[in-house]
Amino acid sequence: MNTHLNRRHFLGGAGALTVSVLMPGHAAQAATNGLEKRPPLDPRKLASYVSIQADGSAVAYFGKMDMGQGTDVGVAQMVAEELDLPAERVLVLAGDSATSVNQGGASGSTGVSHGGATLRNAAAEARYVMLEMASKQLGVPMEDLTTANGVISSKSTPAKKVTYGELIGGRWFDTQVEWNGQMGNNLSVKTRAKLKDPKDYKVYGTSAPRRDVAYKLLGTGDFVTDIKVPGMLHARMVMPPVAGSVPTAVDEASIKDIPGAKVVWEKAFLGVVAPKEWDAIKAMRQLKVTWSDVKAPFPEQKDIYDHIRNAKTVKSGGEGKMLKEPEKVEEAFKNAARIIEATYEWPFQTHASMGPACAVVDYQPNGTTTLWTGSQKPHFAGDGVASILGIKPESVHAIWVAGPGSYGRNDAGDAAAYAAIFSKATGKPVRYQGMRNEGTGWAPKAPASVHKVRAGLDKDNNIIAWHFHSKSFDRLNVSSNESKPEDLLGGQMLGATPKPGNTYGTPAESYVFPVKQQTWETIAPLLDAVSPLRSSHLRDPLGPEIHFANESFIDEVAYATGKDPVAMRLALVGDARDRDLIKAAADKAGWQPRTAARKQRNGDIAVGQGIAYSQRNGTRVAVVAEVEVNMTTGKVRGKKFTVSHDCGIVINPRLLTQGIEGNVCQALSRATHEEVKFSKENVTSVDWETYPILDFTERPVEIDVVLINRQNLPPTGAGEGSMRPVAAAIANAIYDATGIRMRQAPFTPDRLKAGMA
Amino acid sequence: MAKRIELNVDGKAHSIDADPDMPLLYALRDDLGLKNPKFGCGLAQCGACTVLVDGQPVRSCVTPVDSLGAGKITTMGGLSKDGKPHKVLAAFIEEQVPQCGYCMNGWVMTTVSLLETTPKPTDAQIEEALTGLKCRCATHVSIMRAVKRAAMA
């Protein structure tokens, strides 16, 4: 029972509740037998993806991540299915550059669709290899062999049998797999085996439990903030009061009364270390610094959308067959009997993870440097530490430990780089954790944007031309992977020049129009380097804002042409799955067709319902929001959300449903509260008072999830798809309730009251 | 200037030398090596550092370590007895509440305190107790289910 070395059992309640406590990543790895003897990681080797323990259970080595939505459980189920094992007999080890190849970390909701699919293929190959071994050992042709619960037996002579554990338990597969030559998200391997027919699935569709919940509550496992290394120092950064300014003089004597406190200063990088954490914080606050005078880098907040509109285009792109012939699009609009257009605006938003990021780095110039990180891309974060330190990537061992929340490219990679710089400068292992203002104010931002949508109608109100256009800051002013100095604040402080991605995106839906064009242009960042407004990926990058605009506008056109918003969408979508999806949400929510805002009132409270839908890499989600608007205070409450969700085959219905619930609540928060505030000098959203999020009292009373299970279609990911249409559904519900069209997010009381005036 | 300070944490007496103004959080994490209370904001705005002092939820990130007197401090790790999870922890586990899990101290410790004084709270009483706590993963509906489950246990 070797794998059960890492399980303990607690009995709770009246004996009814058995809680299986699995230790987190690195602790579980220590308890996994034979790991110290593993062959070097190589994407061409089966052993890099899967192994069999002495007890016949399996271990899958996952180079992507779960960030608390149960992705690892889904992957365990995929692997278990192909190995004919129950899900609980598959341990998934993730987040350690010494145990898994780099499958890209958490990225674009591809944990299951890409990472899981690769491990599923490896599992099928492992079963195939074991069938070959059993065939020789039992003297039975492979076709006569069957597997069940880790036992291979002869169909014709069932007494002839052997277990996985007996065949190869505790040893490593020594065969190759056909690898596609790619690393990261696109890494895949082929198997000689025929994958199981979905009609024979037993483990897919079951709600295997999460594996990280108990340790997070019982305190039996570490968070990254808990990592302690002998001789470790605590570090804090001293951030500039005006964005863009750099230290010109540092009075080291100003912290001389603090035991062991020291300054680390190189170019624009300034921080302090001390043996005790509180002393590092005191030193950070007490240190006297002279900062360079710089021109305030930002416009007034109220002018941000005008700034975007007026700024020079850096790059443009888009989709649509007319892209190269814009004059044909304009011609279509010229032929229109009527043109409707609207502009939508979305603010900068930030990660504001529950705690500021933390990392520990133990720099060993002549050996292996270790990074403990909460980054959702630990392999890349390790590469980032190597690049910051100027050492080879293979000399860094990156270990993920649960961090304080991650929804994309937050401050975790920057923390890893800071810790590396501190460790190199002091010659000691260093634990860095930011202060609250860094987790909110200095984390990368989802970029503010302006979206202009036009529809050309013929005399019968049919849409004959459609143009969706976004203008925004770069979607990737710093890369979502944290492997290069120019993408890390610490690297930029030491002089690395940012290399912006200069890219954006377009709406994802299946609406069919005779002429359809989706375009974008990006503008320059407000500050080139070390900017608290540098833009990068936040959960469902660009999704909420683009679809807020697209799906609000569909509603506007519906009402302007006397059509019901649901009926109009059903008539326009060109995809049968989208039609089923929209209908499923509308039916479940009890949609009442209407061709004008209903403005239902209950005293001061206006009540409305709105729909929105979108796609995301094959996944599609429709949401019907029911909101209340207090017509005196202007406050919006998202009361109920009915969500229909089609992501192909459903692997784990309970975890999928809970993931959707989290996305809906986070999306509600972003739609109704979240806007990064800034002055001309710096970001002023620095804590929970200045960057408010959804309160418990504002949570939806009900989230009704309709899972559409497509048994024969591959899973296309569920991490972010349900974040996407929520803001638009809320805006459309506000319109139904009040007749007020929200074209600028978030939908705060001030904006609602302005609409009432 | 450091001073000898006595603390009673999870039923054990401790004696540390610390700056009297240092927040309790750092004594618990750094000096005593306890892992449950977390640094979230240092501003008493989020709840990730919550402990109970004589049964009352307290934000350890802003509570000076020398201000507790003989107060009995309970951390999330000190709730369970005899290897059996406290009913609030059991309910949060059963409902699979946490995503990242970093905020859990606030929700759990406040719920423990609520159920001590109000064993069968109404929805409004639960909201009154939990308002102000933060969960960035936005697991609010799971939290409500778990609190109700704990109240039924």
Question: Could you give a quick summary of the protein structure above?
Answer:
The complex is a heterodimer of chains A (757) and B (153). Chain A is of the alpha+beta class.
Plain-language structure description:
The complex is a heterodimer of chains A (757) and B (153). With 757 residues, chain A is an alpha+beta fold. In chain A, the strands form nine sheets. In chain A, strands 13-14-11-22-19-20-21 form a seven-stranded mixed β-sheet, with helices on both faces. In chain A, strand 29 (619-630) and strand 30 (636-646) form a beta hairpin. In chain A, helix 2 (71-83) runs parallel beside helix 3 (111-138), helix 9 (378-389) packs parallel to helix 10 (412-426) and helix 13 packs parallel to helix 17. Chain B is α+β, with helices and mostly antiparallel strands and 153 residues long. In chain B, strand 3 and strand 4 form a beta hairpin. Chain B is globular, with a radius of gyration of 15 Å. Classes of the chains: A alpha+beta (757), B alpha+beta (153). At the A-B interface, strand 1, helix 5, helix 6 and helix 16 of A face helix 1, helix 2 and helix 5 of B.
